[in-house]
Batch of 2 targets.
Target 1
Amino acid sequence: MKRVGVIGGGQLAWMMAAEAAKLELELMVQTPSLSDPAVARLAGEHFVMQGAVGNVAATAHMAASCDVVTFENEFVDLDALGKLATLGHRFYPTLKSLTPLLDKYEQRQLLREVGVPVPGFADLSAVGPGLTHCENGDAVQFPVVVKTRRNGYDGQGTFVVKSLAALEERCEKLAHQSLLVEEFVPFTKELAAIATRNVSGDLAVFPIVETQQEDQVCRRVIAPAHLSTTARDKAVAIAQTLLEKLEGVGTYGIELFLTADDRVLVNEVAPRTHNSGHFTIETCVASQFEQHLRAVADLPLAPAKMIVPAAMMVNLLGFESAEFDAPEGGYGDRLSQIRALPHTQVHWYGKLASRPGRKLAHVTLWTLDSEEIQDLENRAKQIEKIWYKF
């Protein structure tokens, strides 16, 4: 039986662990706390390597008992892991394919080089607040988007600035960090492509979805997105091109902008399973997590097809700062009400603390009748009303 090591023990590893047994794979996680979500789904302590994500010594111990090591997040030390790779330990995605993706500026350069459309951008750290042009030659026009180049997620480290004075102020506040500045894209929808490529080079792309953000955090996902055929084909082609050029192995989440004239541009690339793909667990032939495990274990990929006409995913976010002293954190009544809804599945991650905006769970809802598709958003609002009690 193959054993897959996962660096990280949060909800993504938790959902991966639920799929491993289907494929007769063993899963081992490296995680700092034995109370992290994935630990509860593993067979015993010998499937847990306790250590921080960046603890390379812990990774070395885990890799020694695993056939391959993969990642739950991108916050890793590639140089240190590279020394393990030279000893014969296998990492998927490969460290080479991860290298240009972890820094957002380098990611933008790569995307432009392989012909994938991106917003205009520049390295703000190099040119300073007197910036006048992006690297494609276009003049900078406000508003612009400022991003920290590394370690941002769920909207953290991303700022929309509307004037030169605001840009200078933001640069001063973030003087200790390397920054990227981008053209602000007046998008009509935010989209995501979840794509998987295995070691043999086979590639599958799930239906393109629409993501709905509030305060730069994903609140809802609609699958499939309501798009023109042209826009859908562009999104799929972007995903295929990117994974092929990278020789990427595993499941990737590719965040996209759609404009009024049906242009599709890449916002960001996550080299891992992604929040926008959680709907796949109940509503597709195989989930993004099963596909990821298939890819890194070099098994044949499953068809990336939905088995229902339409679905939505709703994130249940923390709305208070609290420590949990019960399995469902005192939210059992709300979760019971949501579970009672038809064609609905709750995934409670088992975290021990809440804070505003933290992802505590997600809910997938679906329809079996194409005539009911318009009702999904109303059902999603009902779920949010139960959870947030507004």
Target 2
Amino acid sequence: MVLCSVASCNPFVSKEQKTQELVDKELFEMDWNTIDNYPLFYTCDETVSKEQQRICFENELVSHFSKTLKEFEFTIAPDVDSTAYVVFVINTFGKIKVLDIEKDPAILEQMPEFDGVITQSLKSLPEIDPALKKGIPVTTKFRIPIVLHSN
């Protein structure tokens, strides 16, 4: 009696190669447009839902922005309503880098210090833990509006 048993489809594939194939498959199937956890300030609770993390992150960001921008007196022409957009990333170490400040050219003309103030405000944020994807820190990009209007 002859008994033949095969344990694998390809007995010549190493464990390392099988592991790499599984990792590659997982990376390919992963949705890279979403994160599992938002970047968090020390005042935010990492154990709450993703939606509550987002709300805490946004509230802390807006609160800090409001406080620092109140220190500066921006003057714009009467009847001007404009929105500037600040595009920035938070890297895997929780550091912020401003990529762009999208604004009406009139804003720069009337407030040449605008970009510097906005950039400094972001860089003076309290420490931030980076966003997480599958438990791994990832870089995230944000675009936030700043509404400017004259009184």
